[in-house]
Design brief:
With about 475 residues, the protein is of the alpha/beta class. The protein folds into two domains: about 40 residues, no CATH class; about 350 residues, Alpha-Beta Complex (Spore Coat Polysaccharide Biosynthesis Protein SpsA, Chain A). The chain is built from 15 helices and 21 strands. Strands 2-21-11-16-10-3-4-5 form an eight-stranded mixed β-sheet, with helices on both faces. A hairpin with a 2-residue loop joins strand 7 and strand 8. The radius of gyration is 24 Å and the shape is globular. Bound molecules: uridine 5'-triphosphate. Uridine 5'-triphosphate binds next to loops.
Length: about 475
């Protein structure tokens, strides 16, 4: 495409302001800039902008027609709180068998910029302050190693491999790869860690115009964790999965220190129901907790914002099996997803047109078009366009979907905020939750841990989910230090 063709496309899309400083650029800058402009479809951006900036009033009129939002039907749910011990053992056996067949992979969402946490390094490199000072990436790598070992041992199979597909983005790719290299891939085989990159989208201002980061560069940002679907196809991941014989995947967020990657119970649950997609949820803490909810929307699975249900619905209760009451809408979304490969292979038929774009109002450093000065805003001045990973759920029939309720204490403690700012979901809560779990595991194994000890660090290499700690029976752990055998 020549300069004239590129300029004509931007002009036709109402985005030719990006050429404001073009004549002032060196020829080298011009060619880099043109290469970036060529990689963007200005019509697509203008159309997305029109949709996301459509007046509120039209949204209200849609809402007033009203989708029917109900809790997921019983047929699509199960809970670790109420399932029988035999049932859980059965799921675990099925999931373990799939892992032993080398038919399972994990996909990590690690393309986010972690703006609330405010660390310059990717979130996975973060040290949550454990006695061992292990990073989130290290904990996750050890959990894969541990599970591979547990499965190989319990099934007597030969080599068990759980490939780890790591989705990064422009800002996180290089530092993430360097971190893994620096730590010798945490003991995993390099060829079984596959990095791939999600896409970026231009940032737009409040009038839908593409923003410039410099006179010769469009401001771009990762396209949200929903960018995974496009990236899986475009980065060749689906082909690689097929080649390796993978049939079941577990996708999860980088910031959950308790995540049970490739959890055999979850995999067995999803596979035995033969669904396309399954989710894990935790019980919502209280009616007003600000979490997304997994629900039925017009009889299709969907994730909605906490604000999309009425106060009455948020407070509604149902009788639980124990005779107490539980919130009717309690399926808090923790972005732990199971996918069948067969489902992911349908992406090329739906990804372009299906997922909506969401507006994230952010502070975006940019060039002021009239003065040419660089602006560093202190309040949000523009929009990052994001797709959400769960926005494909509504295309599923309820029979193709299932949700498993799990314990928050055991499986979910997100790292979102800088410690000392919001007071929750930060490094302090992550560390405390992981160590309290270690203490619970030790006590359940017959070890002694004084009450005065908040928690104990049990490395994932010693135990994936509380198993293999019989050797601690009768031992006393009276410091919070990482235990070793
Ligand atoms: P969040 O939405 O919490 O974003 O991501 P974040 O980047 O971690 O933090 P903030 O909002 O900027 O403070 C949830 C998960 O989705 C991934 C993140 O890496 C995290 O695992 N994610 C998010 C992506 O992979 N790509 C994106 O574009 C955005």
């Amino acid at each position: 495409m020549s300069y004239n063709e590129i300029k004509a496309a931007y002009t036709a899309a109402g985005q030719d302001h990006v050429f404001t400083f073009y004549d002032q650029l060196s020829s080298e800058e011009q060619s880099t800039f043109l290469a970036q402009l060529k990689s963007i479809d200005p019509h697509r951006i203008t159309n997305i902008a029109k949709t996301v900036l459509a007046p509120e009033i039209s949204n209200e009129s849609i809402i007033s027609v009203g989708p029917e939002i109900t809790p997921l039907p019983d047929s699509a749910t199960a809970s670790l709180f109420t399932a029988s011990a035999d049932q859980i053992v059965d799921w675990k056996k099925k999931g373990t068998a799939l892992i032993a067949e080398n038919a399972v992979a994990v996909v990590l969402l690690a393309g986010g910029q972690g703006t609330r946490l405010g660390s310059t390094a990717p979130k996975g490199c973060f040290d949550i302050g454990l006695p061992s000072h292990k990073s989130l990436f290290a904990l996750q790598a050890e959990r894969i190693l541990s599970l591979q070992k547990v499965v190989a041992h319990s099934t007597g199979s030969g080599k068990v491999t759980i490939p780890w597909y790591i989705m990064t983005s422009g800002p996180t790719r290089a530092p993430t790869q360097a971190f893994f290299q620096q730590h010798s891939y945490f003991g995993l085989e390099e060829e079984n860690i596959i990095f791939f990159e999600q896409g970026v989208l231009p940032c737009i201002d409040n009038a839908g115009k593409i923003m410039l980061e410099t006179k010769s560069k469009v401001a771009v940002a990762p396209d949200g964790n929903g960018g995974i679907y496009r990236a899986l196809t475009e980065a060749g991941v689906l082909k690689d999965l097929k080649k390796r014989g993978i049939r079941h995947l577990h996708a999860y967020c980088v910031d959950n220190c308790l995540v049970r990657m490739a959890d055999p119970v979850f995999l067995g649950f999803a596979a035995s129901r033969n669904v396309s997609v399954a989710t894990k949820s935790v019980p919502k803490r209280n009616p007003t907790e600000n979490v997304g909810l997994i629900v039925s929307k017009d009889n299709h699975p969907a994730v909605i914002e906490y604000s999309e249900i009425s106060d009455e619905m948020a407070h509604r209760t149902v009788a639980s099996v124990e005779g107490t009451s539980a919130l009717a809408f309690r399926t808090a979304n923790i972005v732990n997803h199971y996918y069948s490969l067969a489902y992911l292979e349908t992406i090329p038929t739906w990804r372009e047109n299906y997922l909506p774009y969401h507006v994230a109002k952010k502070k975006i450093p940019c060039i002021d078009l009239s003065s040419g000065e660089t602006l560093t805003p202190s309040t949000p001045n523009g929009i990052k366009l994001e797709q959400f990973i769960f926005d494909c759920f509504p295309q599923l029939n309820m029979s193709e979907f299932a949700n498993l309720e799990v314990s928050r204490d055991d499986e979910f403690s997100p790292l979102k905020n800088k410690a000392g700012t919001v007071g929750e979901d930060d490094a302090d809560s992550s560390r405390a939750d992981l160590m309290k779990q270690g203490k619970r595991w030790l006590l359940a194994s017959g070890a002694h841990v004084p009450e005065s000890i908040l928690g104990v660090e049990v490395p994932p290499l010693l135990s994936y989910a509380g198993e293999n700690l019989e050797w601690t029976k009768g031992l006393t752990f009276d410091t919070e230090k990482e235990i070793s055998k």
